[in-house]
Amino acid sequence: MTKTLLFSFEPIADCNAEILILGSMPGQESLAADQYYANRRNAFWKIMAQLLGFDQDASYEDRRHELKTARIALWDVLQSCTRVGSLDARIDAGSITVNDFQSFFRTHDKVHAVFFNGAKAESAYRRYVLPTVSTVPVSYMRLPSTSPAHASLSYEQKLQAWQSALGPVGRNKSV
């Protein structure tokens, strides 16, 4: 297989966002569907649905709306990279270009917390982004990856970790 230059999506965000959830780079299914977390085995939308109290099978537009209503922004650390397949471990480090977080934080100045959806998002942010931004959120936390490739934790364990971090933003707190 050859490495392909991949490009991530625009953020799901509005000016009221208080929390930013960062992935690394969309997987193949997400890129093909032009949607964040399009792989049905990825637990992201199932977790968000439980925490925020919406139908996980709602349309993509409705799911995007639910995030915005909860003041949650969603984006990826990487703007582009080359990678074979969907695994973060296959990203060619020499090909990485990061998104413009300086501009993002300037236009989304209410963001006070960043949650990383997995280790690659956190390590890439800390290495490539953090040294370059002058305005930074108050807190950072890595959460277990919602990817099906991260199989060392059960869905319930992932949900519990995400609920502990994000639970207060949700409308449905009895998970």
Please tell me about this protein's structure:
The model is unreliable at 171-175 (pLDDT under 50). It is built from six helices and seven strands. It has 175 residues and is α/β, with parallel strands linked by helices. The strands form two sheets. Strands 3-2-6-7 form a four-stranded parallel β-sheet. The protein has a single domain, classed as Uracil-DNA glycosylase-like domain (Uracil-DNA Glycosylase, subunit E, 3-Layer(aba) Sandwich). The N and C termini lie far apart (42 Å). The longest helix has 12 residues, at 155-166. The radius of gyration is 15 Å and the shape is globular.
H/E element string? EEHHHEEEHEHEH
Rg result: 15 Å
**CATH architecture verdict:** 3-Layer(aba) Sandwich
Number of strands: 7
Number of helical elements: 6
Task: State the shape.
Answer: globular
Uncertain residue segments? 171-175
Distance between the termini: 42 Å
- Helix-residue proportion: 25-40%
Tell me the name of the CATH class.
Alpha Beta
The description of the largest β-sheet is: 4 strands, parallel
Kindly estimate the percentage of residues that lie in beta strands according to DSSP.
15-25%
Strand line-up across the major sheet: 3-2-6-7
CATH homologous superfamily identity: Uracil-DNA glycosylase-like domain
Structural class given helices, strands, pairing?
alpha/beta
Using the coordinates shown, work out and report the CATH topology.
Uracil-DNA Glycosylase, subunit E
